[in-house]
Amino acid sequence: MKQPGDRLASAMEYMPGNGVYEEDGELFAGICGELEEDNQKMMVSIKPSVSIPVEIKEGDTVFGRIQSLRDSMVSVEILKVKGEKRSIGNYTVGTLHIAKMSSEYVSDIKKLYQINDLIQATVVKAKPAIELTTSPDKDGVVFARCGITHDVLKLVDGELWSEELRRRAIRKISKVYGKVQV
Predict the structure, then answer these.
(1) Measured distance CA(48)–CA(108) in Å, rounded
(2) Mapped to the 3 state alphabet, what secondary structure does 12-58 carry?
(3) Reduced to 3 states, what is the DSSP secondary structure of residue 98?
(4) For the chain, what is the radius of gyration of the CA atoms?
(5) What is the pTM assigned to this prediction?
(6) Sign (positive/negative) of CA torsion 160, 78, 33, 128?
(7) 105: Cα separation from own chain's centroid
(8) pLDDT for residue 182 is more than 70
(9) Which of 15, 25, 86, 111 stands the most exposed, by the fewest C-beta atoms within 10 Å?
């Protein structure tokens, strides 16, 4: 078990990997964990002994809640990264621009999304700010409620339906609508 500040190797021998930093030509542990040596890549890393916060990367599929709608974009509170057991540790917001919402032309954002809809999106850019897309068919709304009655919208013949109002609700629906628990 290595502790932060423990000397691991010379920077002449190895490159620093995850959890390792270099100072004055020496490599040191930056976190608590087990030492891992990769002799093919000539790299040393520290495998954390505790779980670390989820880091959002380009290409990740994320689940989020629509927070606000504007004319050309929506703000999405990112709740979870698909495939990760841990939730996002802190309040994280991404933006979804109107041009990246669908593969088809979008004239009115309100025809695709409403505030509090849960969506699945793909991360296009992670830094400095998170940018999302829902253009692929797999992305879009995964859970929604009626904006008037607040009843859960049901998927009927490929469209969302409000039982109480007896009418359809227009959204960009994900292929996994109703099958996801965030």
Answers:
(1) 46
(2) CCCEECCCEEEECCEEEECCCEEEEEECCCCEEEEEECCCCCCCCCC
(3) helix
(4) 22
(5) 0.71
(6) positive
(7) 25
(8) no
(9) 25
